């Protein structure tokens, strides 16, 4: 869940990735937590817990609007316009890739907080950014099961040598961390959004195997959601049918 600096740490050159067709390879790109929620949706479906099953599916799908806020420390405040533009470009990248099934909206009541700071480290190592997130499903006061997502994304505004992060660097880091929230693992392939950040050539768009992977897990959740809706409708009609024929 960390955007590393490949140019600094390894000196590797960016290389295009091949498209993936193996289901096993695609599944390796998906975070275990996402597969677990699809499995929980399936378990609830078998137990005829339609509302709970849909909630687990929705925790993967994030249908509709996901709210976010943008915060700056004192050292990054001067970069506000650049950072906000980078957020806009990164969220648009994912919205387009997911056919706008997921939408991001700036709000004072955010699910996701973007925090821009001069430098970001992990275990005393310079990194481009990182994310902490939590997904859960719980019953509300009405007894209905609903999904909940909370996340904080840290993004650095200065390169390790003190130079400002360029807009394209920020866009890569933000899109990378959003990719984790949406369900993708880190990639070792330089040049991919989910791969390390190459300061010389940051990723400009999602690779085909990244969109294939996220689409695969989302389709599983979507099919489970549809099955629950149909089953609950059939159950309702079956319950009402005797009453309607009296």
Describe this structure in words.
Residues 7-18 and 240-246 have low confidence and may be disordered. A six-stranded mixed beta sheet has the order 1-7-8-4-2-3. A two-stranded antiparallel sheet has the order 5-6. The chain has helices spanning 6-9, 23-28, 32-46, 50-61, 80-97, 167-182, 208-244; strands spanning 2-3, 64-72, 102-106, 112-117, 120-122, 125-127, 129-139, 145-156. It is globular and about 65 Å long. It starts with a strand and ends with a helix. Helix 3 packs antiparallel against helix 4 (50-61) and helix 3 (32-46) runs parallel beside helix 7. The protein has 246 residues and is α/β, with parallel strands linked by helices. Helices cover 44% and strands 21% of the residues.
**Compute the gyration radius: what is it?**
20 Å
End-to-end Cα distance, whole Å, is: 60 Å
Give the total of beta strands: 8
Strand neighbour order, sheet with most strands: 1-7-8-4-2-3
| Element pattern in H and E | EHHHHEHEEEEEEHH
Which regions contain 5 or more consecutive residues with pLDDT less than 50?
7-18, 240-246
Structural class: alpha/beta
Task: Assign an overall shape.
Answer: globular
Helical content (DSSP H or I, runs of 4+): 40-55%
| Proportion of strand residues | 15-25%
Largest sheet geometry? 6 strands, mixed
What is the residue-averaged pLDDT? 88
Question: How many helical stretches?
Answer: 7
